[in-house]
Amino acid sequence: MKPATSIQGVDVCVGKAGVLAGHLSYAKQGQREFSTFAYDTQWLTSPSRFEVSPDLPLMAGFQARRAPSKADSIFHLALADTAPDAWGRRVIARAHAKERKNNPNLAALTELDYLTAVDDFSRVGALRLRDAQGIFLRTFEDGKRTTPPLVELEHIYSASRAVETSQETAQDLAYLQGKGTSLGGMRPKCTLLDEHGRLAIGKFPSVTDARSVTRGEVLALCLARAAGIQAASARILDINGTAVALIERFDRTPDLARIHYLSAASMLQASREDDRSYTEIADIIRSRCVNPTADVRELWRRMLFNLLITNVDDHLQNHGFLYEGHGQWRLAPAFDINPFPDKDRESKTWLSPQTGPIDSLQMLLDHADYFSLGAPGAALAVLTEVMTALSNWKAVAMSPAVGLTRKELDDFAPAFEHEAAQAAHDALAG
Q: Helix (H, G, I), strand (E, B), or coil: what is residue 84?
């Protein structure tokens, strides 16, 4: 006898106005799960319509999705980009486990439960989920959003540290619910509103850190901006001696209108188990972006920067695109950039299907023409700008915006001082 099939559904809406785009259905039969999406008829006839996900062409009828692997989502790619990251899932699962102790009949969490647990106000991008009662998910019963102001940062950090050390209370978990982010990673973090009312991400130190990872990320983002890279604005806040990285969200306008976002993995329709390449990202930029030449050149600059600061966590979820309208996109600002002084200098995303991972400056110079930097001196001009910015890394590291001590510089030096950096010096000297 087959197990009964459970079906749940939510509306998928777009933007601050919550325009209905379609309907998402989630089905579970035993261990089998899948989802379907159907565009709303009015969305399909609207002059401002667009594909909400690359795997959802604008057509009538239900379009089904099953996860191609255990590492992938059962939801269509753009929806999966809004799901809670590993840290958010950890908080949700812990809270549910505590509830089940008091209520053993409570049903197990489904993937739809995780997807709808993200706070509506801070859900990444422009997609929003709405239930049959017209309530956007997730919103508290009293209608208040769960995104806290900056003054609550110490409270959030305390609750997050309790979760990391498995000492959390039910109150800690209830407080943290909905405060996670979809932008990726296993490290403790939250979404919040800064002192100017802008949406931001707060990233906390982990109990396992051997160096100041939060200051290292802010250092990398500050250096990226100095190197001519569009990067998320970031600064360090000292919360009673704890360095918290505050990173401004780029998927909102100043009046908190929502900008549709896709990860590079979603744009390429890539499984998380696939090895994909920067040349493939360049190809999709040329076919779908409003200013492709500038974006592919920026992409090469980011590859170069990553190599020179040893940012090897450059998987496809750590690159993204923002919707510009009329079916066109642009490369999103760089984010999740970190120096890894203890890692081999080899990128997660390949340079091309033929070359494999990036592990030398020469590889990048040899492929500069593919990224519209084939004119004489064009690649070396970018190299000069990036190296000029990085030559000042110690001063930036000890600036008030970052706050590393002189002793802590030794922890990060191997990420900046290595054979690839020497090769860059030699290329510019020659």
A: coil
Burial of 334 (C-beta count, 10 Å sphere; 0-12/13-18/19+) = buried
Is the bond preceding residue 138 a cis peptide, omega within 30 degrees?
Answer: yes
Q: How far is CA 399 from CA 30, 200, 215, 237, in A?
A: 56, 22, 11, 13
Model pLDDT for residues 268-308, shown as the tens digit of each residue: 999 988 889 999 999 999 999 999 999 999 999 999 999 99
At residue 402, what are phi and psi to the nearest 5 degrees?
-110, -55
In angstroms, the Cα distances linking 270 to 217, 276, 321, 378, 406 are 26, 8, 15, 31, 42
Strands 328-331 and 350-352: unpaired
Task: Give the pair of three-digit tokens for residue 302.
Answer: 């980011």
For residues 128-149, average pLDDT:
78
| pTM exceeds 0.90, yes or no | yes
Sequence-separated contacts (24+) of 172-177 with Cβ below 8 Å: 173/91, 173/94, 173/95, 173/98, 174/95, 176/91, 176/95, 177/91, 177/92, 177/95, 177/117, 177/138, 177/146
Of residues 247, 273, 258, 262, the one with CA closest to residue 317: 262
